[in-house]
Model the fold of this input.
Amino acid sequence: MRIALGVGLLFIVSLVIFGATELLPGDLANELLGQSATPETLAALREQLGLNDPAPVRYWNWLTGALTGDFGVSLANGRPISELIGARLGNTVFLALYAAALSVPISLILGILAALWRNSIFDRMANAGALTAISFPEFFVAYILVLWLAQTGLFPSMVRINPTTTFGDRVYMTFLPALTLMLVVTAHMMRMTRAAIINLMASPYIEMARLKGMSPLRIVLRHALPNALAPIINVIALNLAYLITGVVVVEVVFVYPGLGQLMVDAVSNRDIAVVQAVALIFAAAYVALNLLADVLSTITNPRLMHRR
Amino acid sequence: MDREVLLKIEGLRIEGRAGDGWTEIVKGIDLTLHKGEVLGLIGESGAGKSTVGLAAMGFARDGCRITGGSILFDGIDLRQAPEAERRALRGKRIAYVAQSAAASFNPAHKLIDQYCETPVVHGVMARDKAEQDAIDLYRRMQLPDPKGIGFRYPHQVSGGQLQRAMTAMAMACRPDLIIFDEPTTALDVTTQIEVLAAIRDIVRQFDTAAIYITHDLAVVAQAADRIKVLLRGDEVEEADTRTMLDAPREDYTKSLWAVRSFARAEQPPATSAPILSVQNVSAAYGKVPVLEDVSFDIHAGRTIAVVGESGSGKSTAARVITGLLPPSGGAVVFDGKPLPPALKGRTREQLRQVQMIYQMADTALNPKLRLRELIGRPAQMYLGLTGRALETRIRDLLDLIELDPDTYIDRLPGELSGGQKQRIGIARALAAEPKIIICDEVTSALDQIVQEGILKLLTRLQGEFGLAYMFITHDLATVRAIADDVVVMQKGRVVEQGPKAQMFAPPHEPYTELLLSSVPEMDPDWLTRLLESRASVSA
Done:
C-alpha cells in the first residue's frame, strides 16, 4: 500500500518535472545550434531529438527510458546521461552517508543527554550551539570552516576524487563538506530527539519506572526512547533526504563532483535532459527515504506489529 | 496489633505548585503501618491520598514537594536518605501498583520484560530465575495462560489482566510494602472482584504490608485491616475497618457512608407510546459484529438504564441511536417515524432531539472554548438564538446546572473541577432542548459525593422538562438509585429487560445474577462469603 503510494507520488513528480521543463521558453534545437542554426539543420536536429513528437509521446519515451536507467543523452555534450550521473551519484551518496554517519549518532546522543539533564547548563549549551549552527547559511559555515581548518592546512578545501583515490583519502578529503552538512542538520535531529523524549517523561509508565527504582539514564534509554522512535526516525529521514538533495551549495563551495554540481552546471548550460534526470533522482531519494521511515516507524511500534 | 512497625510517617506536609506559588495539599498527616498490615486510605479526589501514598516511597510528583515531617521506613529516613538509597528501596522493598495498568505498563516492552526489570536491576535474581518466578506469580494471580501471557505486549492484554500482571510485577522482589493506588477503579464490577480477590490473596500469602488507596468504601472494606479517611489533605479519622464501618465518628465519614442512599422517587409504569424505540438493531464495526437483534423502548420522563460490562455493546447502542454508527439491520424509530440510519441523512431537527453526555468531561469539552461558547453553540445552531436572547439562554442554563453565571460564564474548562465539567456537559446537552439525553457512564469518573450531586441534578432536570434518559453504566448502585427500566446487555445481546423492581428481585438470568452479586457491599466479610458461595456453586 505504502509502496504503491510512493510509486504514484513519483509518477506525479515526473509529470511535474516534465511539465515544468516544457513550459520553459526557447527552442532547444535553437539553443544547441546557436550561431550555426540554419532552417535545415534546425529541422534535422528537431527530428533527431524527437522534438516534433507531441508532448505525451515525448513524456512516455522519457519515462520508459528513465525506468530502464536510460535518461537519454546530454544536450550539451552528447554523452549518455546515465554515464554522467553514475559516478556523481556515488559521490553524492558517499558524502550523504558520511555526513549522516557523523550527525545521526551525535545528534541522538546530544538529544538524549539534553533530555536527561533537561534545563541544565549542558542542555542550554547544546541547544544554543545547535541553533547557532543551523541559523547560519550553509555557504557561510562552509567558508568559515575553510578559513579555520583549510587555511591552517589541516584539511583540503577542494575535493579531487578520481578512480584511484583510496577510501582513507576520500574520508580525509571529504571531511570538510561532511562537517558542514553535519552542522546544518544536527540541530533538527537533536531537538526532535530531546522534545520527543521529554514529551513522554510525564507518562504514567515513566512514573512507574521511577517507582521501580530505575536510574534516570535507564529510564530515558529503555522506557522513553523506544516510544519516541517514530518522530525521531521521521526527522532523521527528512534530514537524510536533505543531505542528498540539498547539498548543491556545499558541493559548489568545495568543488565536490556530486549531483548538485552536475545540476548547477546543467542549469547554466540549459541542459534540460540532465536537469530532468537529476530532479527525478532527487525526488526518488525523497520518496524512498520517507517510505523507509514509515516502514521503520511501523516496525518499532509493537502496537502495529503485534495485533491483538 | 503489636507487630513491628514498618512505616512511620509523622507530620507529613506536601506542597503543590499552583500558578506562581505553592499551596499545601497535605497538611500534617501521621501514619503508622505494621508489618503485614493493610491500611485503607480513602477520600474524594483532591484529598491527597495518592500524594501521601507516593510520599511513603519518598517520592513526590513533578510540581510537588515534601516540605515537612518525617518518613521512616524500617528505620530509614526517606527524606534524609540520598536519592540513590531511595532508588535502591523502590521496586525492591516498596513497590507501587498504579490506577491504570494500561497506561502504566510501557507499550514498547513485553510484560515479562517489564516484570524482570526490577529483580534483575536490583540484583535480586538472575533473568532466567526471574522469568520462572514471573510465571509462578502469574499463575497465583490466576491469569489465563501464565506461561504465555508474559510474552505479550500490554495492548494485547485486557485491563483486568493487566492490573493483575502489575500486581505480580510489584511482588517480583517480594517487597515489604506495596502501595495500591486505586487498583480497581478503572475496572467494571465483575472484573473488579477478580482483581480484588487476587490482590487480597497474594498480599496475605506473602505477608506483605500494603496501603490501599481508593474512593470506594465498599472496596476498601474487603481489603483493609484499618481505614484512614482523608479530606483536603487532612486526616478526618482512623479506625479498625469494622469499627469504622459500624460506628463512624465524624460527620464527614458518615456522609461518605450515606452517599449510596440517594434514590429517586418511583415513577408510575409507562403508559404512553415510547418516544424512541430501538427495533431489532444489529450493528458491526467492519466485519466484527457488536450488536445482535437489540430492541428496547425509551419513554418520555423516564430513565432507562443499560447495564453490562465493557464490551457488551452499551455504548455502541448509543452510537446507533445518535446515528454515529448506521446499523446493519433493524431501525431506530423516533416518535413513530423511523430515523434515517446515518448522521448525514438526519435533519437538524432530528439531531436536536437526541443529545449526549460523555463519560470523560475532560476530553468531551474543547479546552480552548469558554463556557459561553461551549453552551451557546448548540443553542445557536439548533434554536437560532443570537445576541441578547442567546446570552439570556446561556445564563439560564448555567442557573439550571447550579453554577453562578456571573462567575463562570467566561471560564475555560481547565478552570473547573471534575464535577463542574460534567455539569457543563449536561448544560450543553440541555441547550438543544432535546427530548432524549443519552448519558454514557457520566458518573463513573467522579467520586461518590460528586456523583450524588450529578444524579440529583439530572433527576431534577428530568422532572422539570420531562426528559427521557438513556443511562449507560456498569455501576448497579447508580441503576438502583435512578432507573425506571433496566436493560441488561452481554456480548452485544439483550439478556434481560424490564422495570427496575422486577430486575432487582429474583429470579434473575444467570448473567444478571453475576452482575448483581458483584456489587461490593459495605461489609468486610462480603468478598469472602461471595467467593465461597461461588466456589460451592461451581464445585
